[in-house]
């Protein structure tokens, strides 16, 4: 996918530094409205990616994300028995209006068509003046 369409940030969170600690203060709703406490990601490797349903590379990229999740989510587990790898996917309409759908349609598409089980968040503004605070935090890593 073109870098303007999908921005991918791999955050290796072991061991956490003081700078990374602020990540753990985020609590965001997933696409169903369930609150996700980012402190649960302590000690895990996470892939944060923004996605779009109407991009020319959507099919290949969702299939790749699903495969990556399927393979790495079976990596050595955390002490609580969970996976040590997570994908956090944030749909965004910020790049060429390639995510026109609402949350319910996005979830049905990703879960139904691709059978993806990784974390999916609501459509999010990832750049510009109205950038979501989480993405503003990420952008701060790349001045």
Q: Reading side by side through the largest sheet, how are the strands ordered?
A: 1-4-5-6
Instruction: Kindly name the structural category.
Output: alpha/beta
Provide the succession of SSEs: EHEEEHEHEH
Q: How much of the polypeptide forms β-strand, as a percent range?
A: 15-25%
N-end to C-end Cα span: 23 Å
CATH class membership: Alpha Beta
| Total domains | 1
What is the fourth-level CATH superfamily? Glutaredoxin
Structure description:
Residues 1-18 have low confidence and may be disordered. The chain has a single domain (8-139), classed as Glutaredoxin, CATH 3.40.30. The protein has four helices and six strands, in the order E-H-E-E-E-H-E-H-E-H. The protein has helices at 18-21, 58-72, 103-114, 133-139; strands at 8-12, 27-29, 35-37, 45-51, 85-91, 119-120. It has a four-stranded mixed sheet, with helices on one face. It is an alpha/beta fold and 143 residues long. The protein starts with 7 loop residues before the first strand and ends with a helix. Helix 3 (103-114) links the parallel strand 5 (85-91) and strand 6.
Keywords:
143 residues; alpha/beta; Glutaredoxin; four-stranded mixed β-sheet; two-stranded antiparallel ribbon; 4 helices; 6 strands; 19% strand; globular; disordered N terminus; Putative phospholipid hydroperoxide glutathione peroxidase 6, mitochondrial; peroxidase activity; peroxidase; signal; Glutathione_peroxidase
SSE layout and pairing:
Blueprint: E1 8-12, H1 18-21, E2 27-29, E3 35-37, E4 45-51, H2 58-72, E5 85-91, H3 103-114, E6 119-120, H4 133-139
Parallel strand pairs: 4-5, 5-6
Antiparallel strand pairs: 1-4, 2-3
């Amino acid at each position: 996918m073109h870098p303007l369409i999908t921005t991918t940030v791999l955050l290796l969170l072991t061991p956490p530094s003081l700078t990374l600690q602020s990540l753990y203060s985020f609590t965001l709703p997933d696409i169903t409205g369930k609150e996700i406490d980012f402190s649960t990601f302590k000690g895990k490797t996470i892939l944060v990616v923004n996605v779009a349903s109407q991009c020319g590379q959507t099919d290949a990229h969702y299939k790749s994300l699903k495969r990556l999740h399927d393979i790495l989510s079976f990596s050595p587990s955390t002490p609580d028995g969970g996976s040590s790898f997570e994908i956090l996917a944030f749909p965004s309409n910020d790049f060429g209006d390639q995510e026109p759908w609402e949350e319910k349609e996005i979830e049905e598409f990703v879960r139904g068509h691709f059978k993806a089980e990784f974390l999916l968040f609501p459509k999010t503004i990832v750049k510009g003046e109205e950038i979501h605070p989480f993405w503003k935090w990420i952008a701060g890593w790349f001045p």
